[in-house]
Amino acid sequence: MKQPSKDFQVLHTVTDYTRFCGRPAPAHPLLTIIDLSETRGQARPTGLTPVVPQLYSIWLKKGLKGNIYYGRQSYDFGEGVLGFQAPGQVFAIDETLDLSEISGWMLVFHPDLLTKYPLAKKILSYSFFSYDVHEALHLSAKEEAVLDGLLRNIKAEYEQPIDAFSQDVLISQLEVLLSYANRFYHRQFLTRRTPAHDLLSRFETLLTSYFAHEGEQPLPTVQHFADALSVSPAYLSDLLRTLTGQTTQQHLHHALIEQAKHLLLSTSLTVNEAAFRLGFEYPQYFTRLFKSKTGLTPAAFRFSAQ
């Protein structure tokens, strides 16, 4: 399959985005909703030039036949799912993409819409904007109806003449939509128990085997385990937090401390040697982490166990 080129088309404004989709200029300069069924039969960009929107987008795509590249991976959008894209994320359209049966919607908004609102900071905590495409949210019919209703309210608001209250109302409605998406994602972690618990089991197995090797090794990282499990770091942490109450980093710290206790009590390694064995470049960082988790320095812990 042909790979995307190295050239980029940057979409700076909401108008740029609607033009890219072959739709009229938006009624609001910073936000629009695109009815994807209206893009059926339209000419689409040829080739695989990557597109980089400097915008947020939330989309529910159904009936899309073919592949879209995100990064350098291609994904089949045959199944209707809800997804999120943050500014600066790259995608490219396969020239064989079939839009003849596409439906759904896309909400696109510029970061400037959030300026001076608490949501500008809060949206950074919504880690689903960092999920990979294959981690998109599977909606029930009831959940889809809830979001469709919110979309209608947003559309009705931004199509009115702009007044002193317009932006406040739009931000409030957008925040409600994101809150529902957050709720639905956590529901998915709990209700899709087989895939979620399988991922948890695989993570625990990888974590155990990581510390089973003798000798020095790099510090374990969230990225390492996410790559090994073929998920994004944000998705892995959110799933683990929902199922276990702890993020990936917290799991890694716990495993490190348990391995450190084992080394301190069962070997004659010095504290510095134990730190290097665990992957710490600077022993003082090891001591600081150990004390923050146990209340004792490594030396004090070893002494207390004698």
Automatic annotation (TrEMBL):
KW Zinc (keyword) present: no
Keywords for the protein's UniProt record, in alphabetical order: DNA-binding, Transcription, Transcription regulation
Domain of life: Bacteria
HTH araC/xylS-type domain residues: 205-304
InterPro entries in the cross-refs: Homeodomain-like_sf (IPR009057), HTH_AraC (IPR018060), Tscrpt_reg_AraC-type_HTH (IPR020449)
Gene3D superfamilies attached to this UniProt entry: Homeodomain-like
Record SUPFAM superfamilies: Homeodomain-like
Protein name: Helix-turn-helix transcriptional regulator
Gene source species: Hymenobacter mellowenesis
Lineage summary: Bacteria, Pseudomonadati, Bacteroidota, Cytophagia, Cytophagales
